[in-house]
Amino acid sequence: MTLSETSFNLKLHTFRRDSGRLYRELLRNQKIEPAALAELQRTRAIAIAEFARSQTVFYAKHFADAGIDPGRALTPDDWTRLPMLNRRRLKEHADDVTSSEATPRNSRRALTGGSTGEPLRAMHDSRVPTLALAWRMYTWWGIQPWDNLARMARWGFGRFDTLKNDIAWWPSKQRYADAGLMSPESMRRFHAELTKSQPALLEGYVVSTAAYADFLEAEGLRLPSLRAVATTAAPLDPATRDRLESVFGVPVHDEYRSAEVGWMAGECHERHGLHVFADARVIEVVDEQGRVLPPGETGDIVVTDLTNRVFPIIRYRIGDRGRLLDRQCPCGIGLPLMAQPEGRATDLLYTPTGRTLGQVTGIFSDVPEAVRQMQVHQRADHSVTFRVVEGRIPNARSHVERKIDLLRNRIDNEVPVTIEYVDSLPYTGAKLKYVISDVPRADG
C-alpha cells in the first residue's frame, strides 16, 4: 500500500468521515439489483420533494398551483404530476427556492456559465461530499481517488486556497489549469507541473482539453503517466474523442455534469453509454409537452438532485437534449444507462415556414475525421453559416461539402447554407457555443 493510499484511507476514517461513508455506500449501490436501485431512487425522490414542499416558499406554491394537494403526503404515483421548471423560472425565484435549512456554513455558491444565455445563481449543499460521486466514476477507468490528478476547468482560486487544497490532498497531487486563461505560456507551465506531478488522470472541458492536445502535439510533448482522460461541458463527438486518444495515447471518457447539479452520469471502461448516478439523481427525458418519453426516444433532459437540501432542484429542464437507454452494461455496474447528451435544447435551426432542425451538431458524425471543430451561426434572416476547422484526412472539404449539400436538400434549399473554413473557433469561459441563433423565438 502506497503512502498516498494509506493517507487517503486514514482521512476517510477521520476528518473526511462523511466522504468515506458516502463513497462506500456508492460502491455498494452500483452492485445492487436494478429493481432495488429503482426503489431506492423512488424513495429518495419523494423524500426530497416532500422536504422542498415543506421547507421552501417556492415549491409549496409551485406544487399547489399544479393541483398537488398540500394536505396529502406525496406518493411515487404523484411523481410525474409534479410540475417541471426551467432555468428562467429557477433564476427568477432563487431566493424562494432556498430552503429553511440553508445557512452560510452549509451552503456553497454555484454560478452557471450561462451557455444558454441565462446564467443561474444556485447553491450546493456543502454537507454532501459529492466528490465521492467522482471517485466512484474514476474507479471505472482504473483510477483511484488517491492517484495524482490534473484538471482543466474554471479555476478562480487564489494562492491561499490553492495551498489549502494542496495540504488537504497531500501526499497526492492535484494540479489545475484555468481553462479560461489558456495561452502557449500557461500550457507550457502546466506541462512542466504535470511532468513533475505525474497525473494518472487529466480531466477537463472538451474545448480546453482539445486545445491542450493541439499544443502538446505542436510542441512534441507527452504526458506518459496518464492512464485516462475525461471530458465534460460539451458533447464529446467521435472526431474529438479520436483526436484526444491519438495525442494522449489513453482512453477518453465522457462525463455528464453541470454547475447547478454536479456529477450526473459518466462512462465506464466499456463506453456503451453513460451510467446515470441513480442513487443521487433522477434523470428523465420528456417531450415538448412535458410527457415522459420511454428509453430510446430523444427529448429534453429533466434532472432532480436527490441530495441538495439547501437549494432543492426538482424536475428541472436543464437545457440539454438526450435519451435514456434500455439495456444493461456488460461491465457489471447496475446503474442505468443514458446516451451521450446531444447538445443544448436551444441548439435548433429554423426556416421561415416554421420548420425546425435539430441535431445539427451531429451532421458530420459519420465522417468524424473530416472536421476537427464546428460552429453553426443562423442569422436573423434565417441564413446559415457552418464555420469549420477541417480535419487532416485527404479530401476533408469534399466530405464537408457533401454533408452540407444533403442538409440543403433536406430543407429544400429554403434558406442559404454556406461554409466558412477557419483555422480556429473562439470560445469564452473555456466553452465553445456550437449553435448561435439570431432568429427571434416565440418564447423570448
From TrEMBL:
<feature type="region of interest" description="Disordered">
    <location>
        <begin position="91"/>
        <end position="122"/>
    </location>
</feature>
<dbReference type="GO" id="GO:0047475">
    <property type="term" value="F:phenylacetate-CoA ligase activity"/>
</dbReference>
<protein>
    <submittedName>
        <fullName>Phenylacetate-CoA ligase</fullName>
        <ecNumber>6.2.1.30</ecNumber>
    </submittedName>
</protein>
<dbReference type="InterPro" id="IPR053158">
    <property type="entry name" value="CapK_Type1_Caps_Biosynth"/>
</dbReference>
<dbReference type="InterPro" id="IPR042099">
    <property type="entry name" value="ANL_N_sf"/>
</dbReference>
<keyword id="KW-0436">Ligase</keyword>
